[in-house]
Amino acid sequence: MDIRHDPMLAAAGDLDTPCVTILLDRLEDNIARVQHMIAAAGRANRPHIKTHKIPAIGALQIAAGAIGLTCQKLGEAETFIDAGVTDDMLITFNIVGDAKTGRLMDLAERVKRLAVVADNDIVLRGLSDAARRRGRSLPILIECDAGFGRNGVQWPSTALDLARLADRLPGVVCEGLLVFPNNAPRTLEFFAEAVSLFRAAGMPLPVLSGGGTPSLNSLADYPMMTEHRAGTYVYNDVMMVHSGIATWENCAMHVRTTVVSRPTEDRAIVDAGSKVLTREQYYVQNFGHVVEYPEAAVINLSEEHGIIDLSASAEKPRVGEIVNIIPNHCCVVSNMVDEVYGLRDGRVEIVWPVAARGKVR
Amino acid sequence: MDIRHDPMLAAAGDLDTPCVTILLDRLEDNIARVQHMIAAAGRANRPHIKTHKIPAIGALQIAAGAIGLTCQKLGEAETFIDAGVTDDMLITFNIVGDAKTGRLMDLAERVKRLAVVADNDIVLRGLSDAARRRGRSLPILIECDAGFGRNGVQWPSTALDLARLADRLPGVVCEGLLVFPNNAPRTLEFFAEAVSLFRAAGMPLPVLSGGGTPSLNSLADYPMMTEHRAGTYVYNDVMMVHSGIATWENCAMHVRTTVVSRPTEDRAIVDAGSKVLTREQYYVQNFGHVVEYPEAAVINLSEEHGIIDLSASAEKPRVGEIVNIIPNHCCVVSNMVDEVYGLRDGRVEIVWPVAARGKVR
């Protein structure tokens, strides 16, 4: 591991709050453990950078054996390719409009392989036009909706139609299919039918790309998949613990915060609110897990205030005390701060700028 | 109004998505209208900058008649004081720890008046120590919890105890009481009792500071208040429309986004997800109001995807079409982007960096 060690940096206890800390031993363990899980399932590992948005952590994933990286937005891919982390990049978002397809082709010229998804003919034709104008060939994965209810073609036959259109258009080559998450309800049925349809049509499907951290435990249930894209596993969070894919001890991201008020016996106010933790909940209750007071509940967040209910906690923190909160969803917390602090043995070992924070385009 | 006009800037239609646009006519109208409302109620106007985080907009509020500004975090106050927007600043957050009280005193030395809240003796003693070390006197407002359930002393008698402690401590002068929001359940009863208690004790209360945009309609119900802190009114959002304090036509912030997929007849996917709109809901349903398709519902957000249900909308957007979304909560959207685009008459009149974005400390 090439995490840089700078002995001049502060003791962890000196960090002012709120701030986001990364426990480096856990980060390294998560990267190694999941690389092993994915390799053991016979898949290529293509981690999603959305969780950390930090080129140096992408480099750790590549060093551990990942074949390349996944980005959601062009601006993220530009950041990671500028940093020279990988020359095999996948962008899992429909790229629409001349401004963006132009940037996409600029990037394609700088790496060995830049692949991108499409789930409709308008997007596919736009990619074809842009690639043709540059005299290049762009690898395409067709995004499939196997029950998650977001992007994606709804039927294997539509995927085949789109692949045939790609065959006819200049500048685009259909390399396979992509789904998120791997364990969406219809994945097995959808991919089994697609593989059979494409085979009958004599169309190769070298890449079948699944994704998601919670589906790491069921990789063997989807034997046709060739690669896996997981993001959250590098840090983990309350959602991953509730999903059974991580324990509290696998959670590498802590939001360090100070108790600034104890207005009542059972209420503490901390200086991290939704501007750090976000109000993301999905299927979990409350807004984070308090490491030092596991019976306490982060029951509400204002932008700058975290409201903690201490009624179930025999021990109660005092004003001025530092507490660490594991967020519900670590990926979105990365996007709220300009830097994170990498900790080991009570020291700040490294300060990482979140280089791809806020890359919304 | 001194919004700078640059004729070289783009047509609004050229802005790539997603991005946050501010309709300047509406912004100016909101600033003027609310200044008038607050002045007509006999209050001083001290807008909260958390909504825009942009010094130039703070300057417009001051030019319209605001006596000063409100910040939640030291980093915000530093940004606005660096920009020279006001020399009368209030920080409405308990400042804890030597690092922060030192920064607070640095700021106090640069402006005519910097006031700060306290709701407990530990915070008050910390402020006193820091001010004493600099040989300065710091104005304090005692934060009261009149039923909102966040920070604040719970009883008027506790406020008096804290004011008496401030009297005994060097470096701090209690100037009054503060509450958020103005229309919290017990505000009237709490402040009436406090005013009477302080009067009986011979302690002046020159400042009684209320807050909140939804409470602008009921200022007259709280006649003892001397100043009002509202933030959201500069832009407004779905929550303010639901609160009855604004109409859709008062909403100055639009999130400009592109339809990137139409996976089914009734589903559209746009390129703005929680990384721009955030998943904040509080008391409203869904995740934003689609201006061009008011019957459409933004039913879910991933980080980069907005999922729109078109089943109630007779008209349905095509892939590549631009739609504008009014967010649930404009303040948190400001914090998601590095810049906003000020629009008038179909032109980008100004690009404002969100200078105090991400100032979590």
TrEMBL record, chains A, B:
<dbReference type="Pfam" id="PF14031">
    <property type="entry name" value="D-ser_dehydrat"/>
</dbReference>
<dbReference type="GO" id="GO:0036088">
    <property type="term" value="P:D-serine catabolic process"/>
</dbReference>
<protein>
    <submittedName>
        <fullName>D-serine deaminase, pyridoxal phosphate-dependent</fullName>
    </submittedName>
</protein>
<feature type="domain" description="D-serine dehydratase-like">
    <location>
        <begin position="252"/>
        <end position="344"/>
    </location>
</feature>
<dbReference type="Pfam" id="PF01168">
    <property type="entry name" value="Ala_racemase_N"/>
</dbReference>
<dbReference type="GO" id="GO:0008721">
    <property type="term" value="F:D-serine ammonia-lyase activity"/>
</dbReference>
<keyword id="KW-0456">Lyase</keyword>
<comment type="similarity">
    <text>Belongs to the DSD1 family.</text>
</comment>
<dbReference type="InterPro" id="IPR001608">
    <property type="entry name" value="Ala_racemase_N"/>
</dbReference>
<dbReference type="InterPro" id="IPR029066">
    <property type="entry name" value="PLP-binding_barrel"/>
</dbReference>
<dbReference type="InterPro" id="IPR051466">
    <property type="entry name" value="D-amino_acid_metab_enzyme"/>
</dbReference>
<dbReference type="InterPro" id="IPR042208">
    <property type="entry name" value="D-ser_dehydrat-like_sf"/>
</dbReference>
<dbReference type="InterPro" id="IPR026956">
    <property type="entry name" value="D-ser_dehydrat-like_dom"/>
</dbReference>
